[in-house]
Design goal:
Length: 569
Amino acid sequence: KRAVIIDGQEVPLNGEKNILEVAKKANIDIPTFCYHSDLSVYGACRMCIVEVEGRGILPACSTPPEPGMIIHTNSSRILKARKMNIEFYLANHERDCTTCEKNLNCRLQEMASRMGIREVRFGERTEKVPRDVSSFSLVRNPNRCILCGDCVRTCQEIEGIGVYDFSHRGSRATVEPAFGKSLAEVECVYCGQCAIRCPTAALVVKSEVDAAWEAILDPDKFVVAQIAPAVRVAIGEAFGLPPGEITTGKIVTALKKIGFDRVYDTSFSADLTTIEEAEEFIKRLQKNERLPQFTSCCPSWVFFAERNYPFYLEHLSTARSPQQMFGSVIKNFVAKQEGIAPERTVSVSIMPCTSKKFEARRPEFKNQKYADVDIVLTAQETIQLIRSANIDFNELEPQPFDVPLGAGTGAGVLFGVTGGVTEAVLRYAYERLTGEELKKVEFEQVRGLGTVRVAEVEFGTRKVKVAIVHGLANAQRLIQEIRTGKRYYDFVEVMNCPGGCIGGGGMPLGHPDYPEVLRKRAQGLYHADRLSPVRKPQDSPTIKLLYERWLKEPNSEIAERFLHTRFSS
Ligand code: HC1
Ligand code: SF4
């Protein structure tokens, strides 16, 4: 019989790669620091050791299960070794837990608590290294690094960049960017994927919560929030709700209670991006120029392209990202409508993404007097903001977004999941090019979490080839195939993070089964689309109103000035 016995329980084998996976099937949660199912196996943290009868102590992450194995995850040898391991980690680690950014979200802290560690038998490292605060999005604190290598493998395998490596030896061993440079001096694209996998506070999101409070508490400021699509299916996780549960209305209520003057939906400006980007695409299709058109709403991808593909910059859509379009709408339209000077208006975006902090500070989105987006709070920081305001999130009564720029369409909500921008553009372009009503708005071909998805869509007589890719390492492989002429596409959607924005580097922490969480968040967004009364941007009355009252028509001079941008290498 193909089965193992694990802690006295018989567990059938069904192609599991390692003992960890078998244990998970039996609901046994073996502790790990360096194991992530979407990264290569490193086997360095020694937390997942198990005792296999007749074989001795082995790491569960790199040991394949064999039929007949008798495995103990909690023998006295294992317990002793694991405790000692944690004590070694703690000896080499700053232990100021109460003031640490990761307090209550730290895996090392959780393990120490789980194992009941009450004293550390080895001395604490006293030599301190300065923190690296050079990045727009992250803070790196080497004194909290436990050398698990998660960031090294994440940046190498998911992003294909390889910012970090191990350096020095013995007690001075550390992980850092090459030649001890700061994050701002290397090829980092601010995506935060390393930080979301870091088990301690060696890599954390750079917080702007204090700046947000300051603006909110200043009676002279008019504070306007926009909420990104992906955030709505994840913030609930921090308050005990399952991933994928839609909490849009509760987030609006929470922000209103905190003191935001207006709360808007980034999905609305995603509809604007769709229309501006689709019209640009249609023109390029008709002229057969600058194809493939690449999406440009993901700032990490744009930054990477600026550095590595200068010859493709003309191919990027010039439509600004929804965050920046909304920033522009807030400062140039809403402020006027409300009779408040843009300088007094503080535009805050609530994002899944650490890289949006960098995007908001790009010089093209600022003038001498003000920036279009002043403060970017990731989902993590927003959770902190809600907690610090003493709000019981689960008990909140949902509220709608403010009018007149209310909610976006279902298509706009889909921006938060890989393939969503493409689906939104297809919903618009199909009707524009064929003049027919789209009967079935779902484009199932572009959905799913496969690393590269391709589809061919018929627009009357013209067949359009689209490709969707997420994770920069995958994107680099796809672009290589396009450059060498091995593949041809008319439209390519690139998102830096696995899953798209639902996998953003600023999303809530603390999930042992990350790929499953991404699947559920994706389902949440598809559900939100189905629930939307309007599912195509061209049918949105508010979008029509904005064009009538301000922008005139897609790609007009005003639209170009306020909603488009240029890229430079
Ligand atoms: Fe995204 Fe986007 S989808 S980039 O992931 O185009 O961050 O959610 O807000 O701007 O809409 C992020 C999400 C987000 C933008 C939109
Ligand atoms: Fe690499 Fe992204 Fe981390 Fe920068 S933020 S080091 S690009 S994983």
